[in-house]
Amino acid sequence: MILSDFLAPISKRELHEAYFIDMSHCKSFLRDLKNEYTTFTINDPERVGGSNRVTYAVKFYFVNHDPVLDEALQRWLFDNKQCLSQPGVRAKVAYRLRFYCRTPFQRGGLATQLLLREEGVFKKWGAREIQLLAMDAGRWVWTRPKFGYQIADFDMHSLRQQYLDWQRSQKMTSILIAASLDDFPRAFLESAVNSLCLYKII
Amino acid sequence: MPLQLKVYNEFDELLLHVEHVQGDSSPLRIYEGTANLRHAVKSLEGYDFERSAIVAGELRQFSAKWDSPDFLAALGGYWSSNFGWRTKLTETAPSFTFVMPPDIGTSNIMLSSLYRQNPAMPLERLPLLEVGRVSGAYAEALIRGEMAHWIPEKIVSPSEHFITFNEIDVRANRLDILSLIPPSLCIDASSYVTNDWYELSSEPTFGVCEQFVIAEVSEGLWAEKPSLQRLPLQEAVA
């Protein structure tokens, strides 16, 4: 399969343009971000499991060529991946991997704008859901309700088990049961779980 | 060859003991497990497993078809990588038929001797399991629930009790014996179709052999049936 067929009905250019940032919506410390310097590297489809997969990476730079991110933003697109919302269904899925903004440039409005634009283009491509592998600080950040992610039953029950054992190891006097994803405390997610598989239906 | 997966937490407690038998329409059988991990496994039923995790800074994918022998390896690999749980994957014999030794007498014996003939039996249960030799009529009455006080007090774990007995009335074949098990003890008797251990829709679980039945009774059942008394096996047999 060639890349243009995989990406249809969107084009490579359209996907790239999702990462053009409107600086007027960012805080002043991001105003020097230069869209012309943004690098967008996309690979041809490869066969992974029962699906074709396209991987791509994006890097943002300021006008002085300093990078905005600690490492390249990474995304995968699958044309036939198992949906976490409905494990019996395989469909187009966009997979969010790394997004590490350098500390001085966090909370400047970049993520808010970028994630929204991405979701628009993923939807236009035909993605049924976005899956996310939350790592590092993202293990807690992405569980916040404002981002709209959910967790599959399997992962929720596994997480609950780990939470019970974690509370015991912390010698907590009263053991809590997590009823929903945002009930898990930050200290637990960032110390007792390596990564979290989350999803969002779009 | 069936595969068994055991999962342990950081306290070295068994979180889950599950078997995968290839070729079965429902290949997963849960022997033991916490409520959370039982639910986790049940939620996978009928679906392929696909998860990713970070292992030593690298992204690793764990995937397997539902009916594939790789399923438990993928599941265990994911749990181990993501939560640090210790997992143990072993091959087991497909089934067993136990024949009671003729010289067993009326004394209780430790089940460890039986394990050598029944390698499919979960190992950690053995040291505390006992087999009581009871008459056919007594056993029949027991499984009818008429002599429910005949229950060994041996406790394998804080939440489980086991009843073992042999010499079920030989006039009945296996399925007839199963039909005698009262609903209060057996939630889904239709699950018993061969002589192996079975996972039921909920506890308790029973394993059935040619000549004896092993029943695992949950703490919940004790709570539901306060009339059941826990008497020493020796006393009951005598």
Strand content of chain A: 15-25%
Indicate the multimeric state.
heterodimer
H/E element order of chain B: EEEHEEHEEHEHEEHEEHH
Shape assignment of chain B: globular
**Overall radius of gyration of chain A:** 18 Å
The strand line-up of the biggest sheet of chain B is 3-2-1-6
Tally of separate helices of chain B: 7
- Class by alpha and beta content of chain A: alpha+beta
Largest interface: A-B, 27 and 29 residues
Q: Work out the radius of gyration of chain B.
A: 19 Å
- How far the N terminus sits from the C terminus of chain A, by CA atoms, comes to 25 Å
Number of strands of chain B: 12
Q: How many helical stretches of chain A? A: 6
Based on secondary structure, the structural category of chain B is: alpha+beta
Strand content of chain B: 25-35%
Q: How is the main sheet of chain A built? A: 7 strands, mixed
Give the overall form of chain A.
Answer: globular
Roughly what is the average pLDDT of chain B, rounded to an integer?
A: 55
Largest beta sheet of chain B, briefly? 4 strands, antiparallel
Description:
The complex is a heterodimer of chains A (202) and B (238). In chain A, 27% of the residues lie in helices and 25% in strands. Chain A is α+β, with helices and mostly antiparallel strands. The longest helix of chain A has 17 residues, at 153-169. Chain A is globular, with a radius of gyration of 18 Å. Chain B contains seven helices and twelve strands. In chain B, the strands form four sheets. In chain B, strands 3-2-1-6 form a four-stranded antiparallel β-sheet, with helices on one face. Chain B has a four-stranded antiparallel β-sheet with strand order 9-10-12-11. In chain B, a hairpin with a 5-residue loop joins β1 (3-8) and β2. Chain B is globular.
